[in-house]
């Protein structure tokens, strides 16, 4: 994801000839993409501890498809339309005014809620993982 962001940053830098693109790129990457990456990474570290890895890989693939590919349909509830979407679309919409036709306008409050919720859940999952690993080690 960082490489894709860097590619677009290089493209904008090439055509704008403005070096302020670089700190803006870093800021937007940390604000939009990093909370979702931390959210997914926390579960990717913790879940294989409590379930077999192939089961987690299967469930993660289903989660990713459910949360990202079913954006256009409105029959099934998905994470892609909620503040829990790790894609950062709600954060980008709330802070920078990007408007996706399918999601509509996102308020700044929704962006803050999405950012905070993604980070808090990631921290809670990592703390739970740390406690579970300490408990497993103490049992041995």
TrEMBL record:
Transmembrane feature ranges: 20-46, 53-71, 111-133
Keywords: Membrane, Transmembrane, Transmembrane helix
Entry protein name: Uncharacterized protein
Organism: Ktedonosporobacter rubrisoli
Domain of life, source organism: Bacteria
């Amino acid at each position: 994801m960082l490489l894709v962001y860097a590619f677009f940053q290089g493209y904008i830098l090439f055509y704008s000839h403005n070096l302020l693109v670089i700190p803006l790129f870093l800021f937007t990457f940390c604000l939009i993409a990093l909370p979702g990456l931390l959210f997914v990474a926390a579960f990717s570290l913790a879940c294989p501890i409590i379930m077999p890895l192939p089961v987690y890989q299967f469930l993660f693939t289903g989660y990713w498809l459910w949360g990202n590919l079913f954006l256009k349909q409105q029959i099934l509830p998905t994470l892609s339309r909620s503040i829990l979407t790790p894609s950062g679309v709600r954060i980008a919409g709330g802070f920078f005014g990007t408007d996706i036709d399918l999601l509509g306008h996102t308020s700044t409050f929704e962006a803050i809620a999405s950012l905070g919720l993604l980070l808090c859940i990631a921290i809670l999952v990592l703390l739970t993982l740390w406690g579970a690993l300490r408990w497993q080690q103490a049992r041995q």
